[in-house]
Amino acid sequence: MSDEKLVGIVLVSHSAQVAASVAELARGLAGGGASVPVAAAGGTEDGGLGTSSELIAAAAASVDRGAGVAVLTDLGSAVLTVKALLAEGDELPDGTRLVDAPFVEGAVAAVVTASTGAGLDAVAAAASEAYDYRKA
Question: What is the rounded average pLDDT for all residues in the chain?
Answer without folding.
Answer: 94
